[in-house]
Amino acid sequence: MNRRGFLIRAILGxxxxxIMTSLSSAMEYPRCPFTLGIASGDVMDDSVVLWxxxxxxxxxxxGGMPPVSVPVQWELALDPKMSRTVRRGEAIATPxxxxxxxxxxxxxxxxxxxxxxxxxPSHSSRMGRTKTLPHRNSRPDxxxxxxxxxxxxxxxxxxxxxxMIRDKPDFIIHLGDYFYDTSFGVDDFRKHETEKAPVTVxxxxxxxxxxxxxQQLQRAHEQIPFFTTIDNHDAIEDDDPDKYAxxxxxxxxxxxxMPVRGYKAPGDNHFELHRKISAxxxxxxxxxxxxxxxxxxxxxxxxxxxxxxxxxxxxxxxAVFDEDRSMLGKEQERWLTETLVQNKSTWNVIASPGPYLxxxxxxxxxxLRYIGxxxxxxxxxxxxxxxxxxxxxxxxxxxxxDVHSFWAVDGRxxxxxxxxxxxxxxxxxxxxxxxPEQLAKPVTDxxxxxxxxxxxxxxxxxxxxxxxxxTEWKTTARAMKDVRDEQSPALDLARFLVRKGEEGFTRxx
Length: 509
Known about the structure:
The chain is α+β, with helices and mostly antiparallel strands. The chain is built from eight helices and 25 strands. It has a seven-stranded mixed beta sheet with strand order 11-10-9-22-23-24-25. A seven-stranded mixed beta sheet has the order 12-13-15-18-20-19-21, with helices on one face.
């Protein structure tokens, strides 16, 4: 057994370990412990991660569980009635990982629906559905998936997830800011458990639990497999040793509440989050971690306009253009370059937490850029662009989030030739987090300086729905009428078409 296998088994309590504590096989549950729901994720053509966390009192730091390890039963079936069970087993939920359970199943059939549930004495979870990806050597006719990001519990309901369920995607990619560290001073439509930003593992656990109690989010996790990565509000951004302790706490709690692989042991402040998502030879998606290993964004010490975009839009100093600066870190960048160049799929896709293509802000006679995007890592962006161009196979597409608004961008139309990249980028709006006027208006005012942005909508919350075939890529911006209405209808704000082998995109409506 390799070191990682041993660590994972130790975490799950399947081998002797200091974190195991005592094992209680006769645990009684006066209340249902599955208050945070169940989920599946990190699916492959033959594998899936199933998740739950035992928490009869979810907003307590310990979830209302005693400091003992307990067994949890799980089942996997071929039908929703669970009459054709194909796998079953027992996982150990330990207090060291907040009594969370991660069941990594291999040897599954490709492109297949499965149903699953968890149980403890006297209580069972609700039924979950998941689906594996098409076989790696197959030729699927189509893939439907969603990109989403940025859900602030205090700004509105997560009603977008109800519409995602109705869309019946093969999977959802969540690009980060799964939770928010604060409400940012808006009137608290819904309350966090506290307005103090999380610092400790207990703090982060309570904040995750607050979000996981949302029933609309729970239903989406029950029905659709997720791929997830981090952004700056649900973890600690930048590779800053001074914040490693807090980052370790954030990552541990994030793992405890997500259906993911790649976490080694409690206290570790590094987490393998980047993923290659492959659906046969139709689409390859490189899902990035654009926060954990990036060089500091606060490098210029020139916040000359703190009231303009809350200080997020700044002039680029000479240090920004250093060839060694990285959004990804050397190891992840090497992985991404190889993945892009070696692509064998029709569509060669990058999914990035933050916007990739440039956007110029003209203010007070100066040119400013958004410090949360790839604009502050131009050398790294150029190397990624060169890798995309070097790929012999695959039409390139960029998908991103972070900026709480819908964008459709044609990189060929960037005015500055040294930043012109022949790639299309679609940016998803937020699930519920608002896009205040201080951030939105500078974008609107500067659209004349950025002809590459062919569509921008700052007013609607929602997500992007992608329908992909061998010849066409269609992206629909699905917007909620009002995220403060728990039953809000959705509307198709705009639809875009990319044809394989043709540059740019067209708007369909």
